Amino acid sequence: VHLAGQFLGAHREELEVLLTREAERAAEDNPLARIMGWDESEAGKLTVTTTTEHLAQRLGHALEKASNYTLKHGFAVSMGMAAESRLAVEKKILPKQDAERLIILLKDLKLPTDIPQNLAREQLWKAMKHDKKNRHQEICCVLLEKIGKTKQTNNQYSFPIAEEAWARILS
Q: What is the three-class DSSP state of 39?
């Protein structure tokens, strides 16, 4: 995670507390989820190194690749978080009000929550097929049970998702 700019300067202590608390919450579900280090460059850029990926990284990376890297990473992750929360609602894993709250929070932060219509769905699906969380040639994703808690079954944190389910969410 890379942080920089005026917002970091004005809110550094708050951001460190937020990230530390988030790492503690993640460790409750996955004991390997930890912050490994805090590195600050001379230019005032803070890099936080972690042991696990963030929610919706897979879809965020797929969005970036499918857009030929015209989407900013944070925007792609935000769209991925929103899409995966909608999918979790459809699969009756996440309460609808939690998904709505997450999407409102993203919008309040001026982050996008809808995947652009001009982004080819076929390219997105193709990019998602190359994610390291996939198993047995199935596209898998991490789904929330509630805000701050991912679904886990038999030590698995990612689950196969049918292309038809994604097509409904992405339309």
A: strand
What is the phi/psi pair of residue 151, to 5°?
-70, 140
The answer to whether the Cα torsion of 59, 171, 167, 68 is positive or negative is: negative
C-alpha–C-alpha distance, residues 130 and 125, integer Å: 9
H helices of 30-171, in order, are 57-66, 73-90, 96-108, 121-128, 163-170
Span 68-102, pLDDT tens digits: 777 677 788 888 889 889 999 999 999 999 999 99
Question: Is the pLDDT score of 67 beyond 50?
Answer: yes
Between CA 149 and CA 141 the distance in angstroms is 14
| Residue with the larger pLDDT of the pair 68 and 61 | 68
Nearest C-alpha neighbor of 23 from the set 11, 10, 38:
38
Tell me phi and psi for residue 2, to 5 degrees.
-115, 130
